[in-house]
């Protein structure tokens, strides 16, 4: 059976170079990084060099990078500490954020009584920046804005520099989930006035179970996990040395090959859009995913002209044909609920049709796209 993997927004295939380096580290650098002997110092040195590498790509200080288990932990660390330790009483967000943010805000609202305010979205799911400014003006309470850079389901791009400057002008903190953009976009956080970001290695061909938070220096953020002084006191627990080095190598390769791979992936995406439009009458594209200036080059979200009843079989049929894609975030794959992202802005009519997210990587080919379009066309015609 032919196998086609188009679910790279959920996770990416690890690069061979990353696996080889991680294997070497597991064999040779097994000392606890907190130990004072040579074995520990060697492991610690690897981690600190990796921290400098990450910081260099973001143009920030190494002390502002905290290694975590991934983007979800990074988001939780920032949001919990902002309320618990920094005195934030009000958080402005959107209804299309990742659940790592939305569910954390539900918890903070229940436990601390904070005010959670949702910025308006337009018909394509784009943040209404005028409304955001109105919300920032409306209260003198200490405020944090949490808006993701790239939406993980529909690919919408937010201008985080504009949002950061707006937040700064109203003395609000700014947190942005950058899980879908780190490794895919160059980001100079010395130029972008963002206070906190999150990233995850498995989104850019690195290992699962490791990521990082960027925490602007002197922010006052406190730990979420207690028990030791690792990560400069921000995150207790013995560091996963091989995973951190895997993240470092994956990030190095992502930025080394960025231009070439962006051109390839963009061509795959554009080819897919053209083939869908040519072969499937009535196909729609959710969000701004057809607009290269407003959406990431790494994914599309497609609404197909299929009845609700037939739609229930679609993902199953694609899987039988060896095609991997998704309805939305992989974190919700075990849920019967529809996409909270699409529910925030799609019409009732389109919500009753199946929408699928196809996300691409350097490993995909136009031949794979042809196969997927053929399978979709056959399904819709039968």
What's this model, at a glance?
The protein has 382 residues and is an alpha/beta fold. The chain has 13 helices and twelve strands.
Describe the secondary-structure layout.
Elements: E1 4-5, H1 16-28, H2 38-58, E2 65-68, H3 71-84, E3 90-93, H4 99-112, E4 115-118, H5 129-137, E5 143-146, H6 160-169, E6 173-177, E7 196-200, E8 211-215, H7 241-256, H8 258-279, E9 284-285, E10 299-303, H9 308-311, H10 314-320, E11 323-324, H11 340-343, H12 348-351, E12 355-359, H13 366-381
Parallel strand pairs: 1-11, 3-4, 3-5, 5-6, 6-7
Antiparallel strand pairs: 2-8, 7-8, 9-10, 10-12
Helix pairs in contact: 1-7, 2-7, 3-4, 8-13
List the main descriptive attributes of the protein structure presented here.
Aspartate Aminotransferase, domain 1; 2 domains; alpha/beta; Aspartate Aminotransferase, domain 2; globular; 3-stranded antiparallel sheet
Specify the CATH architecture of the largest domain: 3-Layer(aba) Sandwich
Could you give the order of strands across the largest sheet? 2-8-7-6-5-3-4
Q: Structural class per helix/strand content?
A: alpha/beta
- How many DSSP H or I helices? 13
Report the CATH C-level class of the largest domain.
Answer: Alpha Beta
Mean pLDDT: 94
> How would a textbook summarize the main sheet?
7 strands, mixed
Helicity, as a percent range:
40-55%
Q: Termini distance?
A: 21 Å
CATH topology of the largest domain: Aspartate Aminotransferase, domain 2
| Number of structural domains | 2
